[in-house]
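Example complex used in Figure S2.
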Amino acid sequence: MTQERDHGRSTAAHGSRIDAYIDRYAARAAGMVASEVRALFAVASRPEVVSLAGGMPYVTALPLDSVGELVADLVARRGTVALQYGSGQGDPALREQICEVMRLEGIEANADDVVVTVGSQQALDLVTRIFIDPGDVVLAEGPSYVGALGTFAAYEASVVHVAMDDHGLVPEALAETIASVARQGRRIKFLYTIPSFQNPAGVTLSAARRRQVMEICRRADVLVVEDNPYGLLGFEGDPMRALRADDPDGVVYLGSFSKTLAPGFRVGWALAPHAVRDKLVLAMESAVLSHSSFAQLAVGQYLATQPWREQIKSFRELYRERRDTMLAALEALMPPGCVWTRPAGGFFVWMTLPEGLDSKAILPRAVAERVAFVPGTGFYADGSGARNMRLSYCYPEPDRIREGVRRLAGVVQQELLTRDTFGTGSAPAHTGVDTPGPDLA
Amino acid sequence: MSDLGHVLVLAGGLSYEREVSLRSGRRVSEVLRAAGIDVETRDTDASLVPAVLADPPEAVFVTLHGGSGEDGAIRSVLELLSVPYVGAAPDACRIAYDKPTAKTVVRSVGVRTPEAVVLPKETFHDLGASAVLARIIDRLGLPLFVKPSRGGSALGASIVRKADELPAAMVGCFAYGDTALVERYIEGVEVAVSVVDLGEGPVALPPVEIVANEGVYDYSARYTAGHTEFFAPARLRPEVADACAQMAITAHTALGLRDLSRTDLIVDAEGLPHFLEVNVAPGMTETSLLPMAVEAAGEDLSVICASLLRAAVRRASAE
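Predicted assembly (760 residues):
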């Protein structure tokens, strides 16, 4: 009889798991799995799809001929330096130029305190590496940059989100969160914040709140990690004064040329108090020995010979037109109940869907209609954000933005009907990474 | 050098399974190149038809999953271009790709397949979901398996063990398609049987047994190496393995398929197989089932792929 109830099995042989190393990975690799959402982003890379998903800068607007000439000139004149190892801290001349760039946001810094990194993403990795032990608390805006959340997860930090509104981090919420973490007997290692044109929310911390946030952190002895890739891409008036400008000892500042020049050079930096800087340099050397000399010198050459301030201005104008296009299209087309932020700079609009809708469940339908976005849950460490989506306007041309929003509005309208029919707009949860790779428009 | 000339592998497309298709295409291209064949890989976009007209390939290997790759559309275009290709003809694809239709066809030739209800989204809009869902549970009981009537890779599919999980499962299903297939869920051993016909009739390769880590063979379990344990051949008694093989060949034949297919089935507690669905462009990735079955049979994937291409060329010359 047992033979009849054994699912027709014969032997208990060992099977194959395809991956011979499956039993050896660190626990932190457990989340590194194939995901439905990533599969959908593969479709979004086709030109038929209007991708409002990725955050690729519009490098087409660069004077590529001039960049080509300066790169050729660099190899011809300084090839033996450009093609050699460099120092762990980065090229001294470039670090001087970086200080000049930061001066636009009110930062007076010494080039000795700058460490050049592989994009600001590596700066974030190094900062996390030197400060975080497993279980340490990192405070971050809710929502926050997905790449930062990935780094924090890799170092097994415990991320606690702090509420934001249209003016950025809410100071009262920050104070309350700090107190609440302290009551639990847990240690906050730093506050990670993108104060200007935040990714993904698009909001900016007001000047008044900047003072309040810094005061709260000073009193609670919380280090601030200020990530500022979009600070020079504001659409209204002068750049906001950086948090670091008024507190050299309480802030580690992360900067990048990815948005003001081009991400392909992968040149970013950290500006840190001396003692932290020393550790960052050692961490940098252990990670990659040194940054690419070639990329650093190319960026240095660009800053020295090209009208880079004018280029940033032209990027600002280009992105402002796209922001305006997206906001106008959302206003005209989105069904009632949808709300969204109105960024004064940067790349992103953060939309909140009507009650009961789940942006992740909507994505397949959107891709079928040839439009893509990033579901909100990827921007939270705690599973929040189901009703949110990030819409980027940096890469598509304005008429494509309009068309993308038109398609998306139709999808949301349909999903409202589905929600009303089934009494839920949520689908069963699944595993995997919910955001696109960096090379997706 | 190969006797085959220039061969085209189609991969990518605009279906939800684009990423999987690209991986399948890379794998097939790789094994064909290893066999000394001149291979070109192409996506299906506006450049395809002019490119094929300008330099017609000797044959095409379609590794497009979902959508136009499996519903017959791209094969109709290949017919219009008079280019030989591996796999089923458009009409057969259309029938096989639509899971409810395929179930009806195989049931008509005596193949066991779980009882099911097929309903488009509009029906729920028009009649109200709760009354219809309640009737489905009354009729089929629990647990249920909900999936889109078309498509693959378990996208939009889920198991429903409690009645209150059914609405979310329907929403998840309708995210990927407009018609849902709600089946009685058979608890059992998941098995896939690949069928290959190199010109001498369909032959079943050894069945592959699938044991997903979390118990559910979903998208993540399918395409993350290590997340699923495969037994090839499946741990089945010989007569059960034979029954599975016979079911796959019967389905392949009844649906009018040719060259290759993969039938997914489940073996219940009594050792009886139940037909779930058939794939006319089976996955060919590193974690896919057909390549595993080929290996379990002691065959070489490059030999099989090249033989399928030769068979396609012969068929076209004979027509």
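Chain A touches chain B through 54 residues (CB under 8 Å). The CA atoms of residues 86 and 292 of chain A lie 7 Å apart.
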